[in-house]
Design brief:
Distance between the termini: 47 Å
Radius of gyration: 19 Å
GO molecular function, one term: hydrolase activity
CATH superfamily: DD-peptidase/beta-lactamase superfamily
Keywords: Hydrolase
Organism: Chryseotalea sanaruensis
Strand content: 15-25%
Oligomer: single chain
Largest sheet: 8 strands, mixed
Strand order of the largest sheet: 2-6-5-16-15-14-13-12
InterPro entries: Beta-lactam-related, Beta-lactam/transpept-like, Diverse_Enzym_Activities
Number of strands: 16
Structural class: alpha+beta
CATH architecture: 3-Layer(aba) Sandwich
Protein name: Serine hydrolase
């Protein structure tokens, strides 16, 4: 694992090429956003200034969609609409959606269930019986972790480069009482993914494909990276590999309260619950169920600046993908766009 960390060096949006994965196929009848007439401005937003800002900050894709119309779409640094980009932690929001699907399907009874109901290998470790699914969703589990992306011996490196995540999970320990404070830790999402797999009896990619991905009528093939080829486990905390337009469709699903062209794919109540901040039991005002809250909306957020931003009030979706985050606060940029449109 350390050797792979050193060999590949720091993570990159092309890392989908170095990991095994399970496929997410494109649709035979893809949904396409309406191509709007391109102008120099959108509302009070100068597209020339916006384009310069986006390009100067290491972006590879930037999309603005309002009322199902593609108002702005541009690619940079040799990337195109057909180029695959690794989502990094934006995948956490997809894992959250699958928890909602499993609840709706009756595979999971409640977010208040103890995680050891699905992860019995953790029963013998002190404190895990007190951790609920909601604690994982809220990043308030208290599981001991090191989220550093620069430490080859840290937990993030184990999760990203490790080839036996099932075995690694057995080594976890509890750091503090669950439900007492927020601490962003990818291990929480990894456990959520394993819970969904155990509850449904299906690999995470299979369940995503059946319950959500296919229904969103993707234009392109995609994939979810796994830790190893044989009996691999999805890296639920990251590594969903897709194209910008198809990432935008996930934003559209949440924008429309879980409804896709008349079919209720996810319960509207789950969407509402997932995007309404809750400070009780250690929760943070800026985070809920694997989504980050902003002033005017909420976003799926991944390392190096992978974003799916949703603003319900303006019926707006923004997708930004990049090699690095750049020198701007993208959440603030999205909020400003929402105010000006």
């Amino acid at each position: 694992m350390v050797g792979r960390f050193v060999w590949y060096n720091f993570s990159d949006i092309t890392d989908h090429k170095i990991f095994p994965s399970r496929p997410l196929p494109k649709s035979a009848q893809p949904f396409r956003f309406t191509e709007a007439q391109r102008n120099d401005r959108i509302g009070n937003v100068s597209l020339t200034i916006l384009d310069s800002l986006v390009e100067a900050n290491n972006s590879v894709a930037f999309l603005i969609i309002r009322n199902d119309s593609l108002l702005f779409e541009k690619y940079y640094q040799g990337y195109e609409e057909t180029t695959t980009v690794a989502s990094f932690s934006a995948a956490k929001s997809y894992t959250s959606a699958l928890v909602g699907a499993a609840l709706a399907d009756g595979f999971i009874k409640s977010v208040d269930e103890s995680i050891v109901n699905y992860l019995p290998e953790l029963k013998s470790s002190k404190g895990f019986d007190k951790i609920t699914i909601k604690h994982l969703l809220q990043m308030t589990s208290g599981i001991k972790a090191n989220e550093s992306y620069y430490n080859p011996f840290g937990q993030a490196a184990h999760l990203y480069y490790g080839r036996n995540l099932r075995a690694y999970i057995k080594r976890l320990k509890v750091d503090y009482e669950p439900g007492t404070k927020f601490a962003y830790r990818s291990i929480n999402t990894q456990l959520l993914g394993l819970i969904v797999e155990r509850a449904t009896g299906k690999p995470l990619t299979t369940y995503l494909n059946e319950r959500i991905w296919t229904k969103l009528q993707p234009e392109y093939d995609a994939s979810w990276s796994i830790d190893k080829k044989k009996d691999g486990l999805e890296k639920a905390f990251c590594c969903l590999n897709a194209k910008a337009r198809d990432f935008a469709k996930f934003g559209r699903l949440y924008l429309n309260k879980g409804n896709w062209n008349g079919e209720q794919i996810l319960p509207a109540q789950w969407i509402e619950e997932s995007t309404t901040p809750e400070k009780a039991q250690g929760g943070a005002s800026y985070y809920k169920y694997q989504w980050w809250m902003t002033k005017n909306g909420y976003e799926a957020n991944g390392l190096h600046g992978q974003y799916i931003f949703v603003c319900p009030e303006k019926n707006l979706i923004v997708v930004r993908l990049g090699k690095r985050g750049g020198d701007v606060s993208w959440g603030a940029v999205f909020d400003r766009l929402a105010e000006k449109l």
